[in-house]
Amino acid sequence: MDDEAETPFIDPDSDYPCCWFCPALRFPRTGFLVADRPSRDWPFDAADGYRYTVDTRTPVCVHPGRVGLEPERTARTYVDPPPPDPGQAGPGQSARRRRWWRLRPGPPSAPGQG
To answer: 20 to 30 A Cα–Cα from 66, which one of 19, 24, 54, 95?
Structure first.
């Protein structure tokens, strides 16, 4: 039985321009995926510094040019919903616009001012 772990895809002592936290420095080629760019599809985990796929938690490298590989995954293009039309009231809203400066409590007014 061979108990040796597979060597990382990129040798940490090499002059390769990959990021210091790249999964290619820690995992063999079969241990990580390569994506075309950062995305919500593979969020960053601040606990260990890697990006993971949401479904299988597989590490993801998001700089294919730095590791010399073609991307396997393409990030979806997210489109934020359009802002609500201020002239139209949604369900449960009045048609009157609220002003943010009217919602904040102001300083107490001095006697005689109003």
So the answer is: 54
